[in-house]
Amino acid sequence: MTIAPDNAQQGASHIYRAMRDLVQSIDDTIPGKFEITKEGIVHDMMSPIGPHELTVLRLRKRLEKVMPEEIVAHTGEPDVETESEGIMRRPDVMVIAEADMEIEGTFDPRTIHAAVEVVSRSNPDNDWVTKMRDYPLMGIPVYAIFDPRTGTGTVLTDIHATPDGPRYATRKDFVYSEDVTIADWTISTGNLPLYRE
């Protein structure tokens, strides 16, 4: 039996909405962070690890120090969602205009100036592989990764079309202690903590 593309899309949309409802119903009852990717639900069991949370805090404060007052480095909810792609993510830091936060429901990824992730010790591929694929699909123009395992990171920009879908064309790697530019703002990466073995 052949399924017409619009029926296939309806089926995929139905499955996505069911996953989203499940994530929203268990999000406050089970520790960790739940997100939806093309493969399904991702559960990052991150218990609040000091170096991860301290990195998020320092990055948020450094960004907000150099950005205009109407732009914020937001941490927390709500999620960023592209229902048509079946993706719902919650970046560690979202650079967004305060006015674009005055909504009900999830954030529109087209309003996000940059997504910043601090690599989880328990699931690094979520940041280095699946989010590197998902964020350009969602249209997030800048994706910055900070990796406390190695004291390195990268900033990805310039979304372009590829046979596998939209991908970032430009990658600028850095080591902790260098200045890094995220969207239009440059911050220091000095004094960011590392994970201990």
Automatic annotation (TrEMBL):
Record key words, sorted: Endonuclease, Hydrolase, Nuclease
Pfam families for the chain: Uma2
One annotated GO molecular function: endonuclease activity
Boundaries of every Putative restriction endonuclease domain copy: 33-159
Keyword Plastid: no
Keyword Hydrolase: yes
InterPro entries recorded: Nuclease_put_TT1808, Restrct_endonuc-II-like, Uma2
Descriptive protein name: Uma2 family endonuclease
